[in-house]
Design a protein that fits this description.
- The strands form 4 sheets. Strands 2-1-3-4-7-5 form a 6-stranded mixed β-sheet, sandwiched between helices. A 3-stranded mixed β-sheet has the order 8-10-11, covered by helices on one side.
- The chain is an alpha/beta fold and about 425 residues long.
- A hairpin with a 2-residue loop joins strand 12 and strand 13 (about 380-385).
- It has helices at about 15-25, 40-50, 65-70, 85-90, 95-105, 140, 160-170, 195-210, 240-255, 260-265, 285-290, 300-305, 355-360, 365-375, 385-395, 400-430, and strands at about 1-5, 30-35, 125-130, 180-185, 210-220, 225, 230-235, 310, 320-325, 335-340, 350, 375-380, 380-385.
- The longest helix has about 35 residues, at about 400-430.
Length: about 425
């Protein structure tokens, strides 16, 4: 059983990647804990990975009882700031039950700042930490988020240092460190503004006994036609074991995911963009989704069509890839636009639909549909998973195919480590005899 903790878990791209690998490699895995404060991501994670049923013990709890359990957890309604108590009070009993049920079912620790090293499970094979990127990304900089990950900046991206705290706490208490760590974030971690902090982080991991391997991965290389580059750093714990360090270093050198020739050798299936778009407007469900993604015919919306990639033009020509899926589509810049003319008064194009965004992040269609078909009212006239919330959930996630490639290497290295340890054990037993 491969035991995993997901910090900054979002909707569970990591768990999705392992779900696929478990079928290919016949390996069992268990998510020991998640850690996520955004209530929409919490419920979405639960629906995608566990189903939409409410935990039986929670289905009859009173609103007052649930509120008393949720009020001090540090939940967020937007993923940016803590939720105010009055916002929590405005939710109906159904909404509160679903949020609380999802927290329980996903074993969610909520607030990484409150997680203590000794509170995590004793044995952790893999801990992932895709900490917030808004203070690092170019889009974030456009909106005034430019303090980066300086230790004293108190930014969302600065939550990286909470991961350090957790690891150091475990070390001081002689608890086992996670055998593998995986960082995911924007490539600007290595930009001039942030590289000093990133180097400090890598050095700290090395002091703790990890080997670091930085990968800059491009989604189209892994079968997803989206112009998305991300930095994924795999850290493998070897401690002071020199032989193990050589073995792991050799493997990473010979299986370099930064090497195009090596990536080609993997023979990854690369479907065309058309496979990810839902253009059959005779299907009412898809047609209605397209209409919901069609902007009004205003001057500002015309500018969005003119200034952004035209995925499908009026003559039917189609691009090979879309631009990066971000948390919003009704804006400039966005991921691109599709010519769409249903003979109404709105603009003659549409954005990508939330369904298409989920598919272009590597999720299966059923993962999107479980959210859509089990949606519920958060307030009288608004749905919990609104169109814009679904865009945000997709944009904040990680391309599953990229993770699958990295985790495949994690399992390879895990096999190597086990074989090496078994050889040592056999040698020691023979020596004793």
């Amino acid at each position: 059983m491969f035991k995993i903790v997901e910090l900054f878990s979002g909707i569970g791209s990591q768990a999705k990647a392992f779900e696929r690998l478990s079928k290919k490699r016949k390996v069992k895995f268990e998510i020991l804990n998640t850690c996520e404060w955004d209530v929409h991501a919490i419920v979405a994670y639960d629906y995608i990975h566990n189903g939409a049923e409410i935990e039986k013990s929670i289905s009859n709890m009173s609103k007052q009882d649930i509120e008393s359990r949720l009020v001090n957890l540090g939940l967020s309604n937007d993923g940016k700031v803590p939720m105010k108590e009055k916002t929590l009070n405005m939710y109906s009993i159904e909404v509160l039950r679903r949020i609380y049920s999802s927290i329980v079912k996903t074993k969610n620790l909520i607030n990484v700042e409150k997680v203590k090293g000794n509170e995590l499970p004793k044995e952790i094979d893999l801990m992932t930490y895709s900490f917030p990127c808004q203070d690092l990304s170019n889009v974030g900089a456009l909106h005034g988020y430019n303090k980066g990950i300086d230790r004293d900046a108190h930014t969302r991206s600065g939550l990286l240092w909470e991961v350090e705290r957790i690891l150091v706490e475990r070390q001081k208490e002689n608890l086992e460190l996670p055998r593998f760590l995986l960082l995911e974030n924007v490539t600007s971690l290595e930009a001039k503004r942030h590289v000093k902090n990133f180097e400090e982080w890598k050095k700290k991991l090395e002091e703790l006994g990890y080997i670091n391997c930085v990968n800059k991965l491009y989604a189209p290389d892994f079968g997803i036609p989206q112009n998305r580059r991300r930095l994924l750093m795999l850290s493998v714990y070897v401690g002071n074991d020199k032989e193990m360090k050589k073995i792991v270093t050799k493997y990473l050198k010979n299986h370099n995911l930064n090497d195009q020739e090596y990536i080609k050798s993997l023979n990854i299936n690369k479907p065309k963009l058309a496979n990810y778009l839902r253009l059959d407007y005779t299907n009412k469900e898809l047609y209605d989704e397209a209409l919901l993604s069609q902007p009004k015919n205003t001057k500002s919306r015309k500018t969005i069509w003119e200034k952004n990639s035209q995925i499908i033009n009026s003559d039917g020509t189609m691009k090979k890839i879309v631009q990066t899926i971000t948390t919003k589509q009704d804006r400039h810049p966005n991921s691109g636009n599709i010519y769409f003319n249903p003979k109404n008064k709105s603009a003659r194009y549409r954005f990508l639909t939330p369904r298409e965004c989920f598919l272009l992040m590597g999720f299966d269609e059923k993962n999107f549909e479980v959210l859509k078909h089990n949606n519920f009212h958060s307030r009288k006239e608004s749905m919990f998973f609104s169109r814009d919330k679904l865009y945000k959930l997709a944009g904040n996630s990680i391309v599953v195919n990229m993770l699958e490639a990295i985790f495949n290497q994690v399992l390879d290295i895990d096999d190597l480590i086990k074989k090496t340890n078994n050889k040592r054990l056999n040698f020691e037993n023979k020596s004793i005899k």
